[in-house]
Amino acid sequence: MTLDPRGARFAAAITSVVIIVVLLTGSGWLALAQAVVFAIGAASARYAPYGMLFRRFIAPRLEPPAEREAAEPVRFAQGVGFAFMAVAAVGYLTGATPVGVVTTGLALVAAFLNAAFGYCLGCEVYLLGRRLTHANRRTS
Prior knowledge:
Blueprint: E1 2-3, H1 5-25, H2 28-43, H3 49-58, E2 69-70, H4 71-94, H5 97-117, H6 121-139
Antiparallel strand pairs: 1-2
Helix pairs in contact: 1-2, 1-3, 1-5, 2-4, 4-5, 4-6
C-alpha cells in the first residue's frame, strides 16, 4: 500500500493541535485518545482516523499527488507515536505529570516536524533500521 504524503502531513497537523491541547490542559484522557488514534494508524494506514478525514474531505479537492510513499514507515511512526502518547497518558492519569509533559513534548516535536516540514522522524528511524538490518545481513 502507498500513501499520499500530503495526507500524512495533514494528519501530523491535526496531531500537533491535539498534542498542544494535551500540553495546555494536562488531559490524560485526551492523551489516551490520541494514543488510540496512533494505535489504529499503526495497525492499518487505511483506517487511520485523520487519514480517513484527508481522503474523504481534502484529497478530492486536490490534484493527484506527484509521488506516493510506502505505508510501512508511516505505520511504524504511528506505532512510535502510540508508545509516546500511551506513556504520556499513564503519566498524566497517575499523577506523574512530568512524565506526561516530557513524552507529550517529544511527540509534539515529531508531529510538528512532519506537519511543518514534511520530515517524518519515525519514518527516518524505520528506514535507518532497515538499512542497518540489511547491512548486517550482507556482512554475516
